[in-house]
Design brief:
By secondary structure, the chain is an all-alpha fold. It is 74% helix and 1% strand.
């Protein structure tokens, strides 16, 4: 018996889930702030003549600590999920993730270079680590794409192999760089394990343009990915250029991934878990999978971040550890289902 999907309601339900997760996220913490107080305080910021109920300390906690962290979690989770969905559409493989073509290795190397050799470097109000991670992620993907296109003649197998090679090389260089300053290893590992508490509104503003461009281009590629799923020959017969579509989607997904990891570090499994769950909910049409991945990914990472900062409070778990606890078993389930489907 097939379960009927709520046609027409999937997008509002996704938006509602994200809003609920974000509201829960700004209430979680040592300072007690109720959802009603938060909504009234936010309404007080509008020209409605409403007076906010929070005192100065509570207002600072809400507006300068919790709210930017929750917004960052929603942005990073949404970007990683939609990028993962885009990669899975390009490679026609549910095990593909945003780090497939070297974004993780490039971002890790870029961040490590700054942490080891210029830990206090900044460009005005912007910290150098996010900028270096962003540039490293894009360069890693560009190197993998160029190598894969040259060796594999534009095929997906050549791109995957190039991504593995580039990721391994960049990780090796990162390990070598770490040896120059052993005392900075803790900072490097803290960045690699991921987190949302390092930045504030400055980081949100920094990634917003790149996040918007990457997400909007991916959302516009839904129909193209549906045609690409038919196979290169069938897609070409319908007037599609498979190589050009792959390049466009990979570029947009890589931009979204670079924006995400530049401010959060390396958070794994979001790009695998969320698109797979979304396909279970709304089907395989990428015109639905992509926007729902954006919304559900944001809600998912906000909820994971709540667990990361409350499970061992007052200490805090690296968010990448929590996503690994959730994602690793899920990855095995997806792998097993994929093998059974192919068998």
């Amino acid at each position: 018996m097939r379960v009927r999907r709520p046609e027409g309601l999937w997008l509002p339900l996704g938006a509602l889930a994200l809003a609920a997760a974000m509201l829960l996220g700004v209430t979680a913490g040592a300072a007690s702030i109720t959802p009603g107080d938060i909504l009234r305080e936010l309404a007080a910021a509008l020209p409605l003549g409403v007076e906010g109920p929070l005192n100065e300390r509570q207002r600072a906690v809400l507006l300068e600590l919790r709210l930017p962290r929750v917004v960052m979690g929603a942005v990073v989770g949404g970007l990683l999920a939609i990028a993962g969905a885009g990669y899975q559409g390009v490679f026609r493989n549910p095990l593909a993730d945003p780090y497939l073509l070297g974004a993780a290795g490039g971002a890790g190397l870029g961040a490590t270079l700054v942490i080891v050799f210029a830990p206090a470097l900044s460009l005005g109000p912007v910290r150098a680590v996010p900028l270096a991670a962003f540039a490293g992620a894009l360069l890693g993907v560009a190197a993998a794409y160029l190598l894969g296109s040259t060796a594999g003649r534009g095929g997906t197998a050549g791109l995957v192999l190039a991504g593995v090679a580039v990721s391994s090389f960049l990780s090796a260089v990162q390990t070598l760089v770490q040896q120059f300053r052993i005392e900075e290893l803790q900072r490097v590992f803290a960045w690699i394990l991921g987190g949302l508490g390092r930045g504030g509104w400055d980081d949100v503003v920094l990634v917003a343009p790149y996040a918007a461009v990457g997400a909007l281009v991916l959302l516009a590629c839904g129909r193209l990915l549906d045609l690409l799923a038919l196979g290169d020959e069938k897609a070409a017969s319908l007037g599609l250029n498979p190589t050009a579509v792959r390049l466009l989607v990979i570029a947009a997904a890589s931009l979204a991934t670079a924006a995400a990891v530049s401010v959060s570090g390396l958070i794994g499994f979001v790009g695998i878990v969320v698109p797979h769950l979304v396909r279970r909910m709304v089907g395989s049409d990428y015109r639905r999978v992509l926007p729902m991945s954006l919304l559900v990914g944001g809600a998912f990472l906000v909820l994971v971040d709540i667990a990361a900062r409350t499970v061992v409070a007052p200490a805090e778990l690296p968010i990448g550890v929590v996503t690994a606890f959730v994602g690793a078993p899920f990855f095995l389930v997806v792998l097993r289902a994929t093998r059974h489907h192919r068998g």
